[in-house]
């Protein structure tokens, strides 16, 4: 189903239609705002509810250097604003937004700019994981940046649906890397990714438990209540401190679960995307749960 939705979403006509009307039609459920100022207000609201945030300036697969540089500048502005307003938020970035596919050296320069600002403002930058053609180059650049800036400044995402992730996690665990574990949101072939959801879920639990057991900071990024309950049992049995891990969920998804866990004293971080380039992000949310299209349909009937 995910593959079919992502293929349809690639249609130019559908894309144009959504980009024109989407924000009005229900995309705002998943995207905080198009502008930074309104986004910061949303962060403030989430913080007041006891939720931590990671801000993502939307954009990916950038093919012009000027756009990659602009994305880096915007991320620097975000880090500055978080610092000045004393918000409880870090940032998430996608390397293909920062020119990875134009020139890895450009991407490294822009990441250096961002991480220098994170150093100055004592914040943290999480590198999202994108589709499999960029997995290795993303890990390579992350390792370089980790050796320069340390695990308090930079972390990475690994995807449970890829067969290779067990080994990637083991190697990064040996470096003490701060990892966010996700199931994986892209369309991948069965030669490299588990086709069955059950296998992805089992691998997810194995990865989380292995990373925590190694004493590494772990971001458990899922809305899967069964896995969340399992994680809670695991940390209780092992006596793992609540400061050593956090739950993460997406803006607008499972909001009552986010609040409940925060009220129970767990660290809960809301991945909060903003900006105008929301279409690919939005289509992945529909692909995960086609029922989300109802929100959009309802928006159409209202307008
Ligand atoms: P699963 O798909 O099994 O869903 C469990 C339950 O959660 C569903 O039954 C439903 O109730 C709810 N749910 C899940 N998705 C929903 C949706 N779209 N709308 C409404 N309800 C939904 N992926 C990636 O490849 N690279 C990355 O860097 C990231 N980063 C990232 C950060 C954070 C904080 C999160 C939470 C997720 C990601 N992802 C990601 C996405 C991830 O790979 C995965 O696609 C989604 O989290 C959906 O999977 P679940 O783990 O929620 O489980």
UniProtKB/TrEMBL annotation:
What PANTHER family does the entry give? PROLINE DEHYDROGENASE 1, MITOCHONDRIAL, PROLINE OXIDASE
Question: For this chain's UniProt record, which GO biological process terms are given?
Answer: L-proline catabolic process to L-glutamate
Question: Mind listing the UniProt keywords for this protein, alphabetically?
Answer: FAD, Flavoprotein, Nucleotide-binding, Oxidoreductase, Proline metabolism
Q: Which GO terms describe its molecular function?
A: nucleotide binding; proline dehydrogenase activity
**Record-listed substrate binding positions:** 94, 284-285
**Pathway(s) where this gene product acts:** Amino-acid degradation; L-proline degradation into L-glutamate; L-glutamate from L-proline: step 1/2
InterPro entries given in the database record: FAD-linked_oxidoreductase-like, PRODH_bac_arc, Proline_DH_dom, Proline_oxidase
Residue limits of the Proline dehydrogenase domain? 40-296
Spell out the Pfam families in the cross-references.
Pro_dh
Q: What is its EC number?
A: 1.5.5.2
- Protein name in the entry: proline dehydrogenase
Which transformation does this protein catalyse, written as a reaction?
L-proline + a quinone = (S)-1-pyrroline-5-carboxylate + a quinol + H(+)
Superkingdom of the source species: Bacteria
- Record's cofactor remark: Binds 1 FAD per subunit.
Which SUPFAM superfamilies is this protein grouped with?
FAD-linked oxidoreductase
**UniProt-annotated binding residues for FAD:** 129, 159, 183-185, 197, 222-223
């Amino acid at each position: 189903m995910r593959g079919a939705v992502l293929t349809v979403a690639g249609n130019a006509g559908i894309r144009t239609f959504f980009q024109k009307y989407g924000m009005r039609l229900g995309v705002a459920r998943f995207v905080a705002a198009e502008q930074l100022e309104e986004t910061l207000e949303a962060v403030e609201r989430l913080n007041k509810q006891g939720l931590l945030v990671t801000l993502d300036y939307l954009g990916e697969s950038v093919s012009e250097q000027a756009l990659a540089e602009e994305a880096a500048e915007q991320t620097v502005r975000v880090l500055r604003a978080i610092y000045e307003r004393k918000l409880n938020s870090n940032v998430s970035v996608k390397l293909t937004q920062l020119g990875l596919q134009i020139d890895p050296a450009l991407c490294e320069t822009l990441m250096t700019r961002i991480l220098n600002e994170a150093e100055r403002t004592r914040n943290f930058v999480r590198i999202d994981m994108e589709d499999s053609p960029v997995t290795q180059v993303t890990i390579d650049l992350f390792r370089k940046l980790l050796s320069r800036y340390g695990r308090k400044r930079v972390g990475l995402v690994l995807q449970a649906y890829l067969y290779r992730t067990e080994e990637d996690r083991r190697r990064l665990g040996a470096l003490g890397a701060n990892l966010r574990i996700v199931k994986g949101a892209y369309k991948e072939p069965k030669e490299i990714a588990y086709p069955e959801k059950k296998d992805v879920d089992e691998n997810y639990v194995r990865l989380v438990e292995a990373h925590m057991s190694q004493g590494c900071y772990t971001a458990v990024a899922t809305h899967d209540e069964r896995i969340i309950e399992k994680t809670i049992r695991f940390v209780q049995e092992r006596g793992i401190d609540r400061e050593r891990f956090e739950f993460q969920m997406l803006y607008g998804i499972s909001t009552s679960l986010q609040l409940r866990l925060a009220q129970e004293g767990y660290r809960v971080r809301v991945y909060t995307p903003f900006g105008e380039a929301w279409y690919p992000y939005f289509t992945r949310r529909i692909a995960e749960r086609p029922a989300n299209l109802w929100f959009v349909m309802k928006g159409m009937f209202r307008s």
